[in-house]
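Usage

Read records sequentially. Each one opens with the input sequence:
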Amino acid sequence: MLQGFESRDGHSNQAEITRILPLKEFVDLMPLATPTAIDGWTNDLVSAKTRPSAKALAQDAILFTNHSRTPTLVGQSPVMRKLFSVIERVAPTDASVLITGATGTGKELAARAIHNMSPRCDAAFVDINCSAIPETLIEAELFGHQRGTFTGAHENRSGLFEKASGGTLFLDEVDALNLSAQAKLLRVLQERTVRRIGARANIAIDVRIISATNCDLAQAVASGRFRPDLYYRLRVLPLHLPELCTRSGDVSLLVEHFLRIKSERQGRPVPRFSSEAMKTLNEYPWPGNVRELENVIEYALALGNGEELGVDDLPLELIQSRGQAASDLRELLQAYMTDAVPLAEIEKRYILSVLQQFGGNQVRAAAALGIDRSKLYRRLRQYGVKAVKFLQEEELDGLQFRGTKTHVI
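and closes with the structure output:
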């Protein structure tokens, strides 16, 4: 908590600054701060910004499939409502879909939702993680093989394309395919037939392809690691899944969702989080996205007892992250008031502090600051911070920054 400040007109401003504030809110706060008493940002503001109303939770909170009525994607934020709308329009078509998004955002859930809401919902949904299969076996796994084709091939075996015929084949981490497998995959998509390894005849197939990646495939094409013709075949309908830090209000909804389903599986009453624990959950930046949140709920259920789960039942990194946010804000407020640092310099320090808390990730930092990524990029150029793009970085997944002068992120 931040203490020891009051407004310049002598009125105390009681609040609670233990979370990352949007840039506008932070700048608006500056003129009000003089030494006596700020205890943060008002709970009313926190609840209005991060906690959805009961009515909002009831409306469009969960995307149900037409096939099983089982919830697959959960959310009520504007970005998720838009995603649900796109999925509903994409699902009835037969076009290939390329799903992009950071690790843990729910790309496979989106693929299953598309399948379950499509005319193919009664047929098979076959999924494969392309990075989990050795390069020497990926073609046999996808296309099948004839007996005696290679050592260990003791019988004829159909591949995943044949098994998914009439339904959907989901290629997760499609960027991991080698160039040879990419060429054969392209041929299958063009001719709608597959030939088993060692066979002479083609087998007609009827499969919808949904692929997913957490890297920049366009950059992979530019560097020669991915075939451009295959890229455009897969990317007929692009679909991007937002990171959890951009989904305003969805954390509370997801917490309730995971508490309920995991408690039911364990055969125990559904507990609740204390207000302090919920505040910590809402303020955490969630670099691992929904998958990380799900793991945190499972952790809390394993450690917690009784009807209420507290802050002590949460992993240490969540508690430390909250303390770091408060410490950074305290230092900035003190610099503004006691060192007469100009407001523009305070704003600069705050932006760089938030960027560092998100590991240099431009997308997440811009979302937390409540500004466009282009605006953040312009500010960083003004500050002498250079943008550098890293490929296949699951933990950072986006534009990172390194200092060209004295600012090193």
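Summary fields computed downstream for this record:
- The chain has three domains: 62-244, 246-317, 342-409.
- The chain has a mean pLDDT of 77.
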